[in-house]
C-alpha cells in the first residue's frame, strides 16, 4: 500500500442500480463510509451558521477553500469533526468579488493579486479534507457558447496544473508550509504574471501523462475534476473526454444552477451522467450547488451520487421549513393557514410529521421567536434533518428497487396532481414514469 493511504481509500462500490431510472445505491470509502446518494451540508468557514458541529448527523460535509485560505491547519482538527469533508476550490465564491479571469488564474481587481490552481491545491493540502476540488473557470450557464468553450479549455489546463502541483509536492517530499496572510505581497497568492502560458508550455503539459487515481493514492486525498460546458452538449462531451483521459476517481458537474430553465438543467445533468457511463466511468458523480428537495430527488433519478447547497440552512434561518407536503413558512400568513386546520398551540409536527426539537413547539411560539438565534438553530437543524431523512428514503427505495414508486408517491403527496411541468416532463420523457 502506498504511503498515506488508508485501505480502500478510493473504494467506490455500486451496491444496486435502479431498473426504472438511472439512480443507483452506492458506498464511498473515505475516512469513513459514505452511503450514496447523499446530500452535503455546507460549513463554508469550517463552521455552519447557527448549527454546532455536535448537532450535525452527516457522513460528509463541505467546506470552502477560499474562505479558509488563512486557517493554516487541518480543518477536521479545527472543527472537531471526525467524518469526511469535501473542500470546494472557491472558484464560485471568488467570482462574486471584483475580479478578472485570465489563463493564469483569478486576478483580483483592487489588489492585482492572483489566485491560481496551484494556490488552491496548496490550501487544500493543508486543510486535509478527504476530497479536494480543482479550481475551475465558473461561468453562468446562460452565457454565450464562446465563453463556455474558453471555460472548458481553461478548466482542463487548470486541472493539469493542479495535478502537477500535487505531484510535484509529493515528488519533492517537501513538508507543508505555513501560509502567510492573504495579501498582495504574500508569496502564497501569486503576483501578476503573463496571462497566457506559452504554446510550448501548454504542449508540454498536454504531452505529460496524468493519472488522478494514482496521484490520489499517493497523497491520501482524492482530487475531483469538474465538467464544464454550460448547456452545450458538445462542450460537455469534450470536457468529459479530457477529464477521463486523466483517470479520475470521481467527477463533478459544474456550471449549473445559474438561473437556467429547469428542463435544460435536467437535460444536461442526464447527458453528462450518461456520457460518463458510456465512456466506462463508474465512479461517484457530484452535481454542484443542488439543494432544493425536488431537485435532489430528480438528480438522484438522473444518476448523480451527491450534491451540496446552502439552501436548506439559509431557508431554515428565514423560517421556511421543509416537509413532505410542501414548505411551511413561519409568517403571519402561514399562521392563518395553519389555524384553518389546527389549534393555536398544536405542535408544528402536525404539519411536518417530524420529531426534531423545532417540531415540538407550536406555530404560534415559533412565530414569536423568529429572527432570534434560537429560531435560526431550530430551523436549520430541522431542514438538515429533513434532507438527511429524504436521502435515507431514497437509498432505501433504491435498495429494494422501488425508487420509481417512491418518486411517484413523493411528488403526489407534495403536489397532488399539480407537480411542476418540468418534473413531469423529466420522468415521462426519460423514464416513462407518470407523476
Structure, explained:
The protein is an alpha/beta fold and 435 residues long. It has 2 domains: 11-309, Queuine tRNA-ribosyltransferase-like (TIM Barrel); 315-431, no CATH class. The chain has 16 helices and 17 strands. It has helices spanning 75-79, 91-94, 117-127, 145-172, 199-207, 212-219, 233-244, 262-278, 293-302, 311-318, 332-339, 349-352, 363-369, 373-399, 403-415, 421-431; strands at residues 11-17, 24-29, 33-36, 38-40, 60-64, 84-88, 99-102, 105-108, 114-115, 131-133, 222-224, 226-227, 251-253, 285-287, 306-308, 320-321, 328-329. It has a 5-stranded parallel sheet. A 4-stranded parallel sheet has the order 5-6-10-11. Helix 8 (262-278) runs parallel beside helix 16 and helix 14 (373-399) packs antiparallel against helix 15 (403-415). The termini are far apart. Residues 1-5 and 176-200 have low confidence and may be disordered. Pfam families: TGT (PF01702). Keywords: Zinc. One of its GO terms (molecular function) is tRNA-guanosine(34) queuine transglycosylase activity. Residues 21-170, 211-413 form the tRNA-guanine(15) transglycosylase-like domain. One of its GO terms (cellular component) is cytosol.
N-to-C terminal Cα separation, in Å?
Answer: 49 Å
- What's the arrangement of strands in the largest beta sheet? 4-15-14-13-12
Q: Strand content of the residues, in percent?
A: 5-15%
User: Over the alpha carbons, how many angstroms does the gyration radius reach?
Assistant: 22 Å
Number of domains: 2
Number of strands: 17
Provide the CATH top-level class of the largest domain.
Alpha Beta
CATH topology of the largest domain: TIM Barrel
Question: Architecture of the largest domain in CATH?
Answer: Alpha-Beta Barrel
Domain tRNA-guanine(15) transglycosylase-like: 21-170, 211-413
GO molecular function: tRNA-guanosine(34) queuine transglycosylase activity
Organism: Enterospora canceri
Keywords: Zinc
